[in-house]
From TrEMBL:
Gene source species: Syntrophus aciditrophicus (strain SB)
Similarity annotation: Belongs to the complex I 51 kDa subunit family.
Keyword Cytoplasm part of the UniProt annotation: no
Protein name, entry field: NADH-quinone oxidoreductase chain F
Record Pfam families: 2Fe-2S_thioredx, Complex1_51K, NADH_4Fe-4S
Length: 638
């Protein structure tokens, strides 16, 4: 059964947006009419799985970035859902609010890469220019300021998002110019975004890379299916349909050694083979909820080569017998969403998606599901709950997705980088693919460089490239002639690498043996001026903020870990708090998903190198300005 779901920016919803002046007011709060609500629901569909898209459309209609309680109650009634279900859904996702905000919502990123590059000063500049603090709205109702976590544009940190427009490389002068520009414009919900964050701009053009996934970027027009076809696009699915049986495709992917590029590193072909045989509804799901701080590779692939992702998902569909694909993409990635929807529409018009693809009996279609701002939805079971219109809580397993995934149907979940690797494997063969990389970790890897480097951006190199080569060859060394202090790899859920591990191969297995994790390919470099206590405070603040609260070890543990980190940052800790922090992080490994299991890595690896720094911070007279500045800014609410 094909499930037809329109894009968030389809022509029908554009007509709803055009009628957005139809408000009633109650106690000064903008409210949406019943007619607005019914039209949005009719456009999207009444099933609960469409709840995220319905609420996103209504939020855009509100004019002040708000979903009022009255609006939510009306949605619940129209969709035949309990009011508590809709209210609980909105309360779970950070991009929604039941309180009025403003015409323009400013979200300033405070996660790792932006924190290292001066996010605190960005808050200072915005506050100075607008006269408001986080959580406040300007008197004219134009701007509302919030802190947020990673926006996925880490190579141009520090960064902020205004509604859905992303802006990077922020300075006091740029912030003033950007904000003044919004005073004379109306909100726009299409593909706007600042040019400095466009995918190809965030790639390093340094020679010596092994470009496979990024080979077509720059030579194809991401807005044109014809451009993709002219460069050999969709040749792999044509070849598979003409020459291979579904099991043959799985065998080739297995033979290639392709391992999942989302963090776990599970062999992709093996995962595909878990889906049951037979004529039943099955789903191909792409995890594009790229929320790990420091990661932006999937965004670039979606922006600059959207058809490559679609083709990879089609190949998975053919191999597993699935007929429907979903791309679950984080709501902050507006340009990616717009370009993917355009690519899907064009592929349908060409007959590349739909029935009887390329004259075969194969049928397959792809739809987009948007996220609402929840790091935990990067975990596959949380993601599927979110797709179903529920809070993004992790599921107990078994059953696993291959047996009971989206809507309890067999499902395969991989991320963008993994699916995008499949077309070239089918087209050029498994032997070609594994001719680079390591024996147990074949192919190339996309590394996301950020932090205190002279050059930051996306690099594609064979799996197992060392930290030293990444920093010296592609990053051009440490910024301002400073010395290297440490690097965080794998994002907030990863670990810390000190100077003696500069020659560690950054592949899936070598990093695990070294006590860290490659994860999604984050390489966040910190220099001699970075305070380890302040850095860990930021990481543990992130985990507390992003814990879904379902598991007691995680819900309680993340709060206690952040509290202990604050004690060191304020000079009120005692040496025994270090062991207490490790002990609590170990207890959290009993959590249901990776979020609760992750803090142990950054804590133990940071203490491995910088235990003395933490001990010095037990003396309030020795506490550093970095910690004080952080506490004075975006941690003050805790």
């Amino acid at each position: 059964m094909t499930r037809w779901i329109r894009s968030a920016r389809s022509p029908n919803i554009r007509s709803v947006l055009a009628k957005s002046k139809k408000f009633t007011c109650k106690e000064g709060i903008a409210m949406i009419t019943t007619e607005n609500i019914q039209e949005v629901i009719n456009n999207r569909g009444k099933a609960r799985e469409h709840l995220m898209a319905i609420l996103r459309d209504l939020e855009n209609l509100s004019g002040n970035q708000q979903l009022s309680p009255e609006t939510l109650n009306a949605v619940a009634e129209a969709m035949n859902l309990p009011q508590s279900t809709v209210a609980g859904f909105v309360g779970f996702y950070t991009m929604f609010s039941t309180r009025p905000r403003a015409k323009f919502l400013i979200r300033v990123c405070k996660s790792g890469p932006c924190h290292v590059m001066g996010a605190r000063t960005i808050f200072d500049y915005v506050e100075k220019h607008l006269g408001i603090s986080p959580g406040q709205t300007t008197a004219d109702g134009l701007f509302h300021l919030e802190a947020c976590e990673c926006l996925g544009i880490c190579s141009v940190a520090p960064a902020m998002m205004i509604n859905y427009d992303l802006h990077g490389n922020l300075t006091e002068e740029r912030i003033a110019t950007i904000l003044d520009g919004y005073r004379s414009r109306e909100p726009f919900f299409g593909e706007a975004c600042g040019p400095e964050v466009e995918g190809r701009v965030c790639m390093l053009d340094e020679p010596g890379q092994t470009q496979r996934l990024t080979e077509k970027i720059g030579s194809i027009d991401p807005l044109s299916v014809d451009s993709y076809l002219e460069k050999g696009g969709y040749a792999a699915i044509k070849k598979a349909l003409a020459e291979y049986q579904p099991d043959d495709v799985i065998a080739i992917v297995k033979d290639s050694g392709l391992r999942g590029r989302g963090g776990a590193g599970f062999p992709a072909g093996v995962k595909w083979s878990f889906l049951p045989k037979g004529d039943m509804q099955k789903y191909v799901i792409c995890n594009a909820d790229e929320g790990e701080p420091g990661t932006y590779k999937d965004r670039i692939l979606m922006e600059e080569n959207p058809h490559g992702l679609l083709e990879g998902m089609m190949l998975c569909g053919y191999a597993t017998g699935a007929t429907v694909g979903y791309i679950y993409i984080r709501g902050e990635y507006r340009r990616s969403i717009e370009r993917l929807q355009r690519a899907i529409d064009q592929a349908r018009e060409k007959g590349i998606l739909g029935d009887n693809i390329f004259g075969s009996s194969f049928r397959f279609d792809i739809f987009i599901k948007e996220g609402g701002g929840a790091y935990v939805c990067g975990e596959e079971s949380s993601l599927m709950n979110s797709m179903e219109g529920k809070r993004g809580y992790p599921r107990f397993r078994p059953p696993f997705p291959a047996g009971a995934g989206f809507l309890a149907k067999p499902s395969n979940v991989n991320n963008v980088e993994t699916y995008a690797s499949v077309p070239m494997i089918i087209e050029k063969g498994a032997a070609w693919y594994k001719s680079v990389g390591l024996e147990t970790c074949t192919g190339t890897k996309l590394y996301c460089l950020s932090g205190k480097l002279n050059r930051t951006g996306l690099v594609e190199m064979p799996m197992g490239t060392t930290l030293r080569e990444i920093i010296e060859t592609f990053g051009k060394g440490i910024k301002n002639g400073k010395t290297f202090k440490f690097a965080q790899v794998g994002g907030s859920a990863g670990g810390i690498l000190g100077p003696e591990l500069m020659d560690l191969p950054l592949d899936i297995d070598s990093t695990i043996k070294a006590g860290v994790t490659l994860g999604s390919g984050v390489v966040l470099v910190c220099d001699e001026d970075t305070c380890p206590v302040d850095f860990l405070l930021d990481v543990l603040n992130f985990f507390e903020h992003e814990s879904c609260g379902q598991c007691v070890p995680c819900r309680v543990g993340t709060r206690q870990l952040h509290h202990l980190a604050r004690k060191f940052a304020t000079g009120t800790a005692v040496p025994g708090d270090l062991d207490l922090m490790v002990e609590k992080a170990k207890l959290m490994k009993n959590s249901l998903c990776a979020l609760g299991q992750s803090p142990i890595l950054p804590i133990t690896t940071m203490l491995k190198y910088f235990r003395e720094d933490f001990l010095r911070h037990c003396d309030p007279s020795l506490c550093c300005p970095e910690c004080a500045n952080s506490l004075a800014h975006y941690y003050r609410g805790h």
